[in-house]
Amino acid sequence: xxxxxxxxxxxxxxxxxxxxxxxxxxxxxxxxxxxxxxxxxxxxxxxxxxxxxxxxxxxxxxxxxxxxxxxxxxxxxxxxxxxxxxxxxxxxxxxxxxxxxxxxxxxxxxxxxxxxxxxxxxxxxxxxxxxxxxxxxxxxxxxxxxxxxxxxxxxxxxxxxxxxxxxxxxxxxxxxxxxxxxxxxxxxxxxxxxxxxxxxxxxxxxxxxxxxxxxxxxxxxxxxxxxxxxxxxxxxxxxxxxxxxxxxxxxxxxxxxxxxxxxxxxxxxxxxxxxxxxxxxxxxxxxxxxxxxxxxxxxxxxxxxxxxxxxxxxxxxxxxxxxxxxxxxxxxxxxxxxxxxxxxxxxxxxxxxxxxxxxxxxxxxxxxxxxxxxxxxxxxxxxxxxxxxxxxxxxxxxxxxxxxxxxxxxxxxxxxxxxxxxxxxxxxxxxxxxxxxxxxxxxxxx
Length: 446
Hints:
By secondary structure, the chain is α+β, with helices and mostly antiparallel strands. The protein is 43% helix and 23% strand. The longest helix is centred in the C-terminal third of the chain and has 32 residues, at 414-445. Its main location: membrane. It is found in: Membrane. Its EC number is 3.4.24.-.
């Protein structure tokens, strides 16, 4: 069921983004009386799942979910329709339109991507507000499970004070600053310490099996008892919190592993908190010292128990426009920092580039409209920014040549554009293979 939910969210988000992006090209093309021959969701190499011609346009769904496209008459694109381009230009063709109209048509896709992301952030702000965690309320710091962070010198219990000397007030500030982080200032044992990050910090994070960063120190809340668990018959309920293990107080989930690692095939006396009541239970471990219990996460419940303080902000409909714009510009800036790091080989960030598997993995295993729209807004920005890269075959490549034409007054020859398109196509294929190859590598060696 988890796979069905994740793949459902993935395909719905991807389809929405592709259709709206291509509509961004389609609508101005139609407004400028440019013929659109095809409008496709997914690629229809040799075969279409569905197609129907309405007017001059064939609308369809392809079988290869790697994107989508609109085929505009008289445009040198991925179709490489040389036969059409060899004919005299027709008034309804892209190449016959003024350069400013062609520029608007080419910028239409990314414009829609950015508008969509902004609109989503506005309605998310209005519907859900903002919820964050005050880092000063984390009495015993963060849980550091990442081997990369451990190797650099971080330890569980460290409190994060600043990144690059920028004070960290909310937990989300860490994510906003970590891409460009050079130093992190922490508090450990009531003393401040600054830890310098290696230049290839992002690369090291990407290639380790455990790639988490700074995790909250939370209690062990029971989520689900596996059917194969030795504790399947024990009276445990979702939401119970383990507060005592083998006679010792268990405050944090991260304390459990070290306490049970030597307890194989053992019976352990525990105490659980159920609502306001503390109950005693006897749990067992298997031959690998495992309980067979999956943990749960309940932010509000943990806040009630005093593990951290939540910062909650609600917006009126009018205020949500400003809040949405702040999130939109912040996400574009953050993604720009990521691209800068990726294209700087010394950071090693390119090792973390992922393909479709990586995108699929970011969707949660349970359906959440809030999470779905947050991720869709981020992917819309990602799609828009990537399409603006000045690579022939991408929108940004077409825009680059159109700007040259507008500024210089000289139009690049069709032969040059055809060759540039081929070069851009091979660059894109190489990038797709690299990104999805990273996914395969991580799946094999994780």
